[in-house]
């Protein structure tokens, strides 16, 4: 079998049941190389037991390198995590907060990037400042953020690179630069961008992303970039977080020392045995993503969306896609015609083999590189028939 990924081809997804899969913003399907990589790890453990572990740890350096390359950051600053939520929660719990510090959050965000900061606020006496994510469709969003930052005491700006329910690409580069001008940091939840929508990490302090969406890796895998690990306090740590954590396992006496120093860096959060099979699948998915390239994926998906958006408008949908191309992602979110329930419409589409999602009462189409150029026409034909029965 040819494992070379090609734009518009589903050859690497022979088991994928829906005839049109436009749901990568939810969970991406697994390509055959990812499945094979996971199977290989499980087979190695089944065959060699503990003797396989050293090789698994060595493999993770390649995973880390690919993750750093994709994010455009130093790979030695990247931790491998079980989920976006755990990555965000770990940082939120490890910042040396002072009572009265302020955190800027945005209404419309997925809760993974609000709940951890709310919990930190309750625990450490922080003040939460809420702004509207939708305000960033214009320069008004940056103006509001600047005003809040100018008032002082903002420690963190926490934002998603792409808004999950509208597809709005947030200007994280400008937001990061603005935060730094006022002595604040920025945390970017990149799960709806990484692998599909380009962004520049130059002025970003933290980036977290799970691997199961646009990257098409398995659940239970994620990446966390921290620009300066030394700014975090080791409130969360495991046995592998210690310096020379493995030394007591190699037969020498008197090496079991509970007071060994805690490392600064990814080991602080990785701290225990990782999901080697899942991370092998993620590594294979990252390789595919690197082969195609994020700019090519973005262009391909948006050409697909361009076709569909115009037809949806003609069917009575209201597109939430930004008019400014610089604020677009690979998500097309649309409000259905009046009187049509988004969930019922998605269910009807699923019966016709078309997979979409319905966050916050919109119909969300999220194509990626395997989606074929002719699919939007087929979606419109199916929607026309469904709406004819519903209306």
Keywords:
2 domains, Aspartate Aminotransferase, domain 2, globular, Aspartate Aminotransferase, domain 1, single chain, 12 strands, alpha/beta, 391 residues
Description:
This protein has 391 residues and is an alpha/beta fold. It folds into 2 domains: 107 residues, Alpha-Beta Complex (Aspartate Aminotransferase, domain 1); 249 residues, Type I PLP-dependent aspartate aminotransferase-like (Major domain) (Aspartate Aminotransferase, domain 2, 3-Layer(aba) Sandwich), CATH 3.40.640.10. The chain is 37% helix and 13% strand. It has 11 helices and 12 strands. Strands 2-8-7-6-5-3-4 form a 7-stranded mixed β-sheet, sandwiched between helices. α1 runs antiparallel to α8 and α2 runs parallel beside α8. The N and C termini lie far apart (46 Å). The model has no long low-confidence stretch (mean pLDDT 96).
């Amino acid at each position: 079998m040819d494992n070379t990924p090609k734009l518009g081809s589903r050859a690497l997804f022979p088991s994928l049941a829906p005839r049109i899969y436009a749901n990568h913003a939810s969970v991406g399907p697994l390509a055959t190389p990812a499945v094979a990589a996971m199977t290989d790890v499980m087979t190695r453990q089944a065959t060699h037991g503990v003797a396989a572990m050293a090789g698994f740890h060595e493999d993770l350096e390649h995973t880390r390198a690919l993750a750093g390359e994709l994010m455009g950051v130093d790979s030695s600053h990247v931790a491998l995590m079980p989920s976006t939520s755990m990555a965000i929660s770990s940082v939120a719990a490890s910042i040396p907060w002072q009572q009265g510090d302020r955190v800027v959050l945005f209404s419309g965000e997925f809760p993974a990037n609000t709940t951890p900061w709310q919990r930190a606020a309750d625990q450490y006496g922080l003040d939460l400042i809420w702004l509207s994510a939708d305000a960033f469709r214009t320069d008004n969003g940056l103006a509001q953020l600047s005003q809040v930052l100018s008032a002082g005491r903002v420690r963190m700006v926490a934002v998603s690179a792409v808004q999950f329910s509208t597809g709005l690409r947030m200007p994280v580069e400008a937001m990061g630069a603005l935060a730094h001008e006022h002595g604040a940091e920025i945390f970017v939840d990149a799960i709806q961008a990484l692998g599909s929508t380009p962004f520049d990490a130059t002025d970003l302090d933290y980036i977290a992303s799970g691997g199961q969406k646009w990257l098409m890796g398995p659940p239970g895998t994620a990446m966390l970039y921290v620009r300066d690990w030394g700014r975090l306090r080791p409130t969360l740590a495991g046995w592998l977080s210690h310096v020379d954590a493995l030394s007591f396992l190699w037969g020498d006496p008197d090496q079991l020392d509970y007071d060994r120093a805690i490392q600064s860096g990814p080991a602080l959060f990785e701290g225990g045995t990782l999901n080697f099979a899942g991370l092998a699948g993620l590594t294979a998915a990252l390789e595919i993503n690197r082969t195609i390239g994020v700019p090519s994926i973005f262009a391909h998906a948006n050409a697909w969306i361009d076709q569909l958006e115009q037809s949806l408008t003609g069917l009575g949908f209201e597109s939430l896609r930004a008019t400014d191309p610089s604020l677009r992602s690979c998500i097309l979110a649309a409000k259905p015609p009046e009187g049509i329930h988004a969930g019922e419409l998605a269910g009807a589409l699923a019966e016709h083999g078309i997979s979409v999602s319905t966050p916050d009462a919109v119909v969300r189409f999220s194509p990626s590189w395997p989606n074929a150029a002719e699919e939007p026409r087929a979606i419109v034909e199916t929607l026309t028939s469904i709406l004819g029965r519903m209306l």
